[in-house]
Write a structure and sequence with these properties.
Blueprint: H1 2-12, E1 17-20, H2 35-45, H3 47-63, E2 66-71, H4 84-104, E3 109-116, H5 127-133, H6 138-146, H7 159-170, E4 181-184
Parallel strand pairs: 1-2, 2-3, 3-4
Helix pairs in contact: 1-3, 2-4
């Protein structure tokens, strides 16, 4: 990551925003998770975000501030059956963001997370996802999930919906926002109890 940041700074003259979009899952119930399941998912989803942020911080400091954005998940806002290690990593990303926001705020570096709901990607449409939901087909998945999403008539977000949220958090409009987890979930988050 340090090499990549160095290339960006050399090629573009600086760095203003970094989005750590780490996402890896090994589908398993909590009690059936192996050490490999937990280690490999944490290595990508948590350590990947940390390594990305750590590599970017010196470049942001050189610019006098900037934006760090991590992709968490609605799984980081509630327990999700069958998601084993993934769920806890996405909670950890939110904690990482909050800690970094406190420490980096005085340097004009904002740190935020985006917590997407279902996004129409191969990970979401995978056999493991269907199995964890007790479903067999994408059509069943759309019917079940769509019923829990009060906004619009979609059963899953498009990747650009998450990109739009990142663009907002990177913009001057979000200059005073730090330490949050922004749910982009077609209203699914309205069902949270707290």
């Amino acid at each position: 990551m340090e090499v990549v940041v160095g290339q960006v700074v050399a090629g573009l003259g600086g760095l203003d925003t970094v989005v750590a979009n780490a996402g890896y899952v090994r589908w398993h119930p909590f009690a059936d998770g192996t050490e490999l399941d937990w280690k490999s998912v944490y290595d990508v989803n948590v350590h990947g975000v940390f390594n990305t942020f750590r590599a970017a911080i010196p470049a942001l400091r050189q610019r006098g501030g900037g934006r760090l954005i991590a992709i968490s998940s609605i799984s980081g806002r509630q327990g999700v059956p069958g998601n084993g290690a993934y769920t806890s990593t996405k909670w950890a990303v939110i904690g990482l963001v909050k800690q970094a926001a406190i420490e980096l705020g005085p340097e004009k570096i904002t740190v935020n997370a985006i917590a997407p709901g279902p996004v129409d990607t191969p990970m979401y449409r995978s056999e493991g996802q269907l199995r964890s939901m007790g479903l067999s087909t994408a059509e069943e998945q759309d019917r079940v999930v769509g019923a829990m999403l009060p906004v619009g008539d979609k059963s899953a977000l498009a990747p650009n919906d998450i990109a739009d949220a990142a663009v907002f958090l990177a913009s001057d409009f979000a200059a005073s926002i730090s330490g949050i987890s922004l749910d982009v979930a077609l209203g699914y988050n309205a069902s949270y109890t707290s």
